[in-house]
């Protein structure tokens, strides 16, 4: 479901402008924590996950941007105002976000069922997005790849930068494209092995059933004797 987030978007931009004017910087996590407190004046509180989604959306829309600071021990990612920030403050840019956390219980159950049936490639891409998130300063994993994007990648298995860009967009493709394509290309599933494993399990079940029946007959014979 799409939600209009004009008030929250303006609040985020205003907060970041004030922070920068005071020669300070914030990470995504720090920004979200500040938003949880300051959003109360808007009369509509978003949950932490929803605030994270909104910040990511603003980065992808170039309202905000990430700046990286490299040290000898880590890479820190900070959020600052982007080239389109003024358009948000002036009301010229409308910001809407699909809030997945507010979907119905039925939708949540459907997603859970899909995750239970997920393939090995789903798991590989999930691990990859966590790794990339850590490398890029501890950003949110779903800012690298959303679960919907992982599902689409698993289904379509793109083989080129052009195909990948149609699924995750130009910005993410430029940042993470080579690693994602490498992961997809290196993944090999063996359906024959799964089929053999299924047959073996079925065969073992039949053997156990026959053995159990034989034991029952034997016990009956002893009782009659």
Uncertain parts = 103-118, 190-198, 211-225
CATH class of the largest domain: Mainly Alpha
User: What can be said about the biggest beta sheet?
Assistant: 2 strands, antiparallel
Helix-strand pattern, N to C?
EHHHEEHEHHHHHH
Q: What is the residue-averaged pLDDT?
A: 75
Cα gyration radius (Å) = 26 Å
What is the CATH superfamily classification of the largest domain? Winged helix-like DNA-binding domain superfamily/Winged helix DNA-binding domain
Q: What is the count of DSSP helices, taking H or I runs of 4+ residues? A: 10
Instruction: Give me the CATH fold name of the largest domain.
Output: Arc Repressor Mutant, subunit A
Strand content: 5-15%
Instruction: Count the E strands.
Output: 4
What would CATH call the architecture of the largest domain? Orthogonal Bundle
- The geometry reads as globular
Which strand order do you get reading across the main beta sheet?
1-4
**Fraction of residues in H or I helices:** 55-70%
Give the helix/strand class: mainly alpha
Q: What is the distance, rounded to the nearest whole angstrom, between the alpha carbons of the first and last residues?
A: 73 Å
The total tally of domains equals 2
Organism: Nicotiana sylvestris (Wood tobacco)
Protein name: Mediator of RNA polymerase II transcription subunit 34-like
Domain HRDC: 115-194
Biased composition (Basic and acidic residues): 113-123
What this model shows, in words?
With 225 residues, this protein is mainly α. The chain folds into 2 domains: 97 residues, Orthogonal Bundle (Arc Repressor Mutant, subunit A), CATH 1.10.10; 69 residues, Orthogonal Bundle (DNA polymerase, domain 1), CATH 1.10.150.80. Helix content is 63%, strand content 9%. The protein contains 10 helices and 4 strands, in the order βαααββαβαααααα. It has a two-stranded antiparallel ribbon. A two-stranded antiparallel sheet has the order 2-3. Strand 2 and strand 3 form a beta hairpin. Helix 2 packs across helix 3, helix 6 packs across helix 9 and helix 8 crosses helix 9. The protein starts with a strand and ends with a helix. The C terminus is likely disordered.
């Amino acid at each position: 479901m799409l939600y209009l987030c004009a008030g929250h978007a303006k609040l985020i931009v205003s907060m970041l402008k004030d922070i920068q004017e005071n020669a300070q910087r914030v990470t995504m996590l720090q920004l979200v924590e500040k938003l949880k407190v300051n959003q109360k004046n808007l009369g509509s509180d978003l949950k932490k996950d929803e605030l994270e989604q909104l910040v990511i959306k603003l980065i992808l829309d170039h309202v905000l941007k990430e700046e990286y600071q490299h040290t000898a021990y880590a890479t820190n990612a900070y959020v600052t105002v982007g080239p389109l920030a003024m358009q948000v403050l002036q009301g010229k840019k409308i910001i809407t976000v699909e809030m997945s956390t507010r979907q119905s219980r039925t939708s949540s159950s459907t997603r859970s069922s899909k995750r239970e049936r997920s393939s090995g490639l789903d798991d590989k891409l999930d691990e990859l997005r966590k790794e990339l998130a850590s490398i890029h300063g501890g950003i949110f994993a779903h800012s690298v790849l959303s679960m919907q994007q992982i599902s689409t990648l698993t289904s379509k298995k793109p083989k080129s930068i052009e195909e990948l860009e149609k699924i995750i967009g130009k910005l993410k493709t430029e940042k993470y494209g080579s690693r994602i394509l490498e992961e997809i290309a290196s993944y090999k599933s063996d359906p024959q092995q799964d089929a053999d494993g299924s047959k073996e399990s079925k065969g073992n079940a039949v053997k156990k059933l026959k053995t159990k029946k034989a034991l029952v007959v034997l016990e009956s014979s002893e009782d009659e004797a």
